[in-house]
Design goal:
By secondary structure, this protein is of the alpha+beta class. Helices cover about 30% and strands about 30% of the residues.
C-alpha cells in the first residue's frame, strides 16, 4: 500500500462551538459509523511540501488576521465518503477572503470547486438512513466561529489525520 501524504489547512472552532458540534457529531455517529476525525472546516490544500518558512508565515498570519464567522446552511449529505453527512456552510465574502489571503502565503488551487462544510460522519451510508437522521437532529442555524487555523498532515490511504501545528487567529 502506498502512503499518500499531503497537508491541508483547517479552520478550528472555539471550545463552546466545538462542544455543540461534538454533541451533534456524536448523535450522527451513534447511527452512522465513521472513523474518528477532528471537527473542522477545510480551508486550503493540498500542499505536498511544507517548509519552516510556510509554518512561520502561518504563525504571522494568525497574529494578523481575525477570527471569522461561518453561516450555517443546514444538514446535508452526499454519496461520497468524505462528504457522507455534514453541516453545509455558506461561502461568504469573509470565508472567500480568508482563503484568498491564505493563498497568498502558499498557492493552492483556488479554482477548485470549494465546498465549505463541517463533516459529521465519513463513510458509505444509505440515503434513507441519512434522511431519517436529519429529521431527528436539532435545528442548527446559529453561526460558528473559526478561531484557529491548523496545518494538518493527511494520509488518505489509511484515513489518518494529524494536526501538526495550530495558530490562534487574532
Amino acid at each position: 500500500m502506498t502512503k499518500i501524504k499531503s497537508y491541508y489547512l483547517w479552520g478550528l472552532f472555539p471550545s463552546k462551538d466545538t462542544e455543540y458540534l461534538t454533541f451533534i457529531k456524536n448523535k450522527v455517529q451513534s447511527k452512522l459509523k465513521s472513523p474518528h476525525f477532528y471537527l473542522h472546516i477545510t480551508l486550503a490544500g493540498p500542499y505536498y511540501n511544507i517548509d519552516k518558512n510556510f509554518i512561520y508565515k502561518l504563525k504571522t498570519f494568525g497574529e494578523s488576521n481575525s477570527s471569522i464567522i461561518l453561516y450555517v446552511d443546514g444538514y446535508c449529505f452526499k454519496q461520497e465518503i468524505f462528504k457522507s453527512f455534514y453541516i453545509s456552510i455558506k461561502n461568504s465574502i469573509q470565508l472567500k477572503n480568508l482563503r484568498k489571503n491564505i493563498s497568498k502565503l502558499n498557492k493552492f488551487d483556488m479554482d477548485n470547486k470549494y465546498f465549505p462544510h463541517i463533516s459529521l460522519c465519513y463513510g458509505n451510508h444509505k440515503i434513507q438512513e441519512k434522511k431519517e437522521l436529519i429529521s431527528k437532529l436539532p435545528i442548527f442555524d446559529k453561526p460558528i466561529r473559526i478561531s484557529k487555523i491548523a496545518l494538518v498532515e493527511i494520509n488518505k490511504d489509511i484515513n489518518k489525520w494529524k494536526i501538526q501545528k495550530s495558530f490562534d487567529l487574532n
